[in-house]
Amino acid sequence: MTSTPVVATQASTRSRALALIGGEATDANLRRYLHGIPGIDAVGLEQRAAALGTRSIKTSSKKRAIDTIIGLIDLTTLEGADTPGKVRSLVGKALTPDPVDPGCPRVAAVCVYGDMVPYAVEALGSAHAAGRDQGVSVASVATAFPSGRASLAVKLADVADAVAAGADEIDMVIDRGAFLSGRFGQVYDEIVAVKDACRRADGSVAHLKVILETGELGTYDNVRRASWLAILAGGDFIKTSTGKMQPAATLPVTLSMIEVVRDWHRLTGAKVGVKPAGGIRTSKDAIKYLVAVAETVGDEWLTPGLFRFGASSLLNDVLMQRQKMQGGHYSGPDYVTID
Amino acid sequence: MTRLAVPKTYKLYIGGTFPRSESGRVYAVTTPGGDFLANAAQASRKDARDAVVAARSAFGGWSRATPYNRGQVLYRIAELLEGRRTQFAHEIMQSEGVPAPAAGRQVDEAIDRWVWYAGWADKYLQVAGNANPVSGPYFNLSVPEPTGVVAIIAPQSGGSLLGLVSAVAPALVSGNTVVVVADETRPLSAITLGEVLATSDVPGGVVNILTGSPAEMAPWLASHADVNAIDLLGAGDVDWVHLEIDAAETLTRVLQPESGADAAAPSLARILAFTETKTVWHTKGLL
Amino acid sequence: MSFLDYAPAPESQALLHLRPEYGLFIDGEFVAGRGEPFPTINPATEKQLALIAHANAADVDTAVTAARRAYERRWSTLSGSDRGKYLFRIARLVQERARELAVAETLDNGKPITESRDVDIPLVAAWFFYYAGWADKLDHAGLGVDPAARGVAAQVIPWNFPLLMLAWKIAPALASGNTVVLKPAETTSLTALLFAEILQQAELPAGVVNIVTGGRETGQALVGHADVDLVAFTGSTGAGRAIARAVAGTDKKIILELGGKAANIVFDDAPIDQAIEGIVNGIFFNQGHVCCAGSRLLVQESIHDEVVDRLKRRLSTLRLGDPLDKNTDIGAINSADQLKRITELSAIGEEEGAERWSPDCELPENGFWFRPTIFTNVSTSHRIARDEVFGPVLSVLTFRTPEEAIAKANNTPYGLSAGIWSDKGSRVLAVADRLRAGVIWANTFNRFDPASPFGGYKESGYGREGGRHGLAAYLRPAGSAAVAAARHAVTVESGHPVKSPAARKKAAK
């Protein structure tokens, strides 16, 4: 993922958004716009997701899928008990997912709390992507993650702190309370402000993932509206969940977000990423997401710049599958490392 | 000194009006003993065609009336029949050659049967409909609906009014519109029923009454592409097998002839025979 | 290499052991047919799968006689609960052998294995389970207490859902106490014959179900046989019309599930992504070989371009090819004849001025294939908007108001099904009320369930299959004169009861 100088782009993003919603980003204008988007029939959406889930990805396709999944993982630790040592271990795993196979690809990023960013950066050393296309990025959750219940000033400070410490990517949470009570303008403004706070001293900007916490939004229509809102406000990625509550990512929810990304691309030509996070634990599940992405918005989306899995235990299941495909026999948990 | 009576001209009943046959034909209606009673219009295939057009155009309104409203309209007809009880009994006595008490009983029975059917209008759907427990997140409901335009060959023997009512009323209950070929030799009560209908709340075209030869008209009705069902109830003496074959051309629903004492006995089945079951699925989703 | 180039994922054929040759299934045994046996082929490869026996009129007569005997001596003497237990057995056996049946269905029919595996065969089992439970509850079927079976049912089924249509026919017939002679479609006999093996495993009494394979004349002999009491047919309107003519004047009950030209109506407030899926499922499910297919897309003019654009993109992701591959969306056309018809009607569509579009997809060398096709600029007078194509061909028409949508949807001699897509509940229900079709899917399409009645208005046939309504045709209402006659008749040893004129009377055919 590259962090590009985007001051100009950001201004144009904003004016485009305002043109689309037909005025300032007020609650009323946003409501009119978001409620004018076609609805979602839950049954049909879930059926489509289930149908995508029946694709049979075998042999060479499975091999490719497994390596693709590894390269899309944001290897995550978000615990109150996180320590520099834990983060270093995580980074080790990120860089060398399978110690016995140097050909195993690295993950896309490690995802940690803001105060752990310096340890992650340090542990990565020269492998830190830091805006390059190679290496592993550091993603930091911010904005009073996971609840988002703090003043804007605190949230922005949280973001600025993580960016200053070397985070390449910021995973923010939206204010679900504001969203559910119809204060769309507030949600919009906050995302815009966080995006501004992602700017570094050299003018480059950390990438912004906007966590919708879909499990708290209640309906697919809300997920879709929140997705549009996050994209209108300039989010680079829309992300399902914090992973701190159930349900986290589900295939239908993610599919509905992929559809928004697809429609946005058709509307504007711009590409926004999608990150399902939480609850994806097996390679079999992860492959369903790859299928959903490829068949909905196209397989050019299957790059770290446009799709991520937010996961921790997923990696080891994928590695065991990988070992099975290479060795021809089933692997076990003692043959993959814990981080 | 007796007053010179003013006899009635018996005409067809099509689209709420009383035309003569477009063919200009009439035929003599007599008592069983052969005494002249009246000249009835002898409807032609074109009259039948006009009747189908009238029935089709009335179908939308009648079928979409609320069941409660349809029931009330039908009940109102029974009220009006009651008011003309004497006239019907007189016509039945004359044309069927039955004594007054028997004629009166037939009228009573016809009225009671009409009331019985009227009461079904807002119930048959509950009895014949179904909520279907499908295995999935769907609302799924089956309801009977009127099939459309129903052509009826009324019974050609037995009580002329009762036979007619037994055939017409069940078709009307669900909202069908009707083209009925009356008892050929004893059509007087049918025409009078038309007069009742014309002064009732039944919209014109809902019931259309033709007098004349079933053998002449039935083939045109059976083969008519805009007739949805044909009740051959009283067609036992004509070549009804060919009528059924004609009806097959557009998959017209057919009821075969009946005879005997329990012919066209009042039944829910007779209502449902002129219905189509429609099943509606709708997704159910909370999210 | 694209991720979307999925590696082949063929379903294994290892669990299917076809015999080289199949006989007729009469009186519990496989017997040779007296006609010339004919091959059944895999429409995806044109390779022969097996040789199928050909029943002539004499064979049909033997089968009907066996069914009559089984009805009188065995099946009508069983309690409802015992009949039900046989049906439960059959349902379980179908589940146990589901994968084998799915593979056979896909090989013989050409439909994608995911469809036979996930739709057809599970529904077959569900159908038997559902009607099994009815067998001892017929008093509650709405036909009065103690309704009577009709006797011998002649059943003729099509090739689009071979085993599922068999289940639709046989399950209610047996639950109601009838015995059966069934004729599968000429090109798809295999699963019916595997089903016969299942009947043997279930130890269903001999003669209760007989399966006669063959061509059109076999079906005619069966339908026209003097000793059948009811005819159940699913197929074309032309053939249904012929059956209605053939049984005219008799007291054979008929159920006809015929053709359709369903309108799939998309309003401008539709849940658009689900509507697109519904349109695709409506017309491309089972290669469009579906009588209730949503073959006429009626889209509100204001969203026409957007819908067509989304539809084209979606069609470009459909996978056409080996039906046994688990990732195939569009399988083979069932026969050369059907392919010819689809090809001809599509050519007429172009000649009449409609705009034809298909996604780029390679067609396999052998077998019968047709690209998913949509026609835009279609007017109501075009043949592709009126004739049933019975293939993966969609005609797109527009409307401006709900009233116009209803009028256009109803402007067809058919009346089997329709679809409505809108987020507005009141409009959905009002439109559903006004559509002259037997099955209305709102915000969904092509859903089937044994509890849900299915059948058409107008030239789409009459009678209902599925649900409580699906029992009606197979039973004589309690208390009817015909019931008394039928009850009397079954006590008489000698063959078919001669119906008295009184027995001919019926409240409703």
Automatic annotation (TrEMBL), chain A:
It comes from Cryobacterium algoricola. The gene is deoC. It is an enzyme of class 4 (lyase). Its EC number is 4.1.2.4. It catalyses: 2-deoxy-D-ribose 5-phosphate = D-glyceraldehyde 3-phosphate + acetaldehyde. Transmembrane segments: none annotated. Keywords: Lyase, Schiff base. Pathway: Carbohydrate degradation; 2-deoxy-D-ribose 1-phosphate degradation; D-glyceraldehyde 3-phosphate and acetaldehyde from 2-deoxy-alpha-D-ribose 1-phosphate: step 2/2. GO terms for molecular function: deoxyribose-phosphate aldolase activity. InterPro entries: Aldolase_TIM, DeoC, DeoC/FbaB/LacD_aldolase. This is Deoxyribose-phosphate aldolase.
TrEMBL record, chain B:
Signal peptide: none annotated. Residues 22-255 form the Aldehyde dehydrogenase domain. It comes from the Bacteria. Keywords: Oxidoreductase. PANTHER family: ALDEHYDE DEHYDROGENASE-RELATED. This is Aldehyde dehydrogenase family protein.
Automatic annotation (TrEMBL), chain C:
Residues 31-476 form the Aldehyde dehydrogenase domain. Pfam families: Aldedh. Coiled coil: none annotated. PROSITE patterns: ALDEHYDE_DEHYDR_GLU. Keywords: Oxidoreductase. The keyword Oxidoreductase applies. It comes from the Bacteria. The active site is at 257. Belongs to the aldehyde dehydrogenase family. This is Aldehyde dehydrogenase family protein. It comes from Cryobacterium algoricola. The lineage of its organism: Bacteria, Bacillati, Actinomycetota, Actinomycetes, Micrococcales.
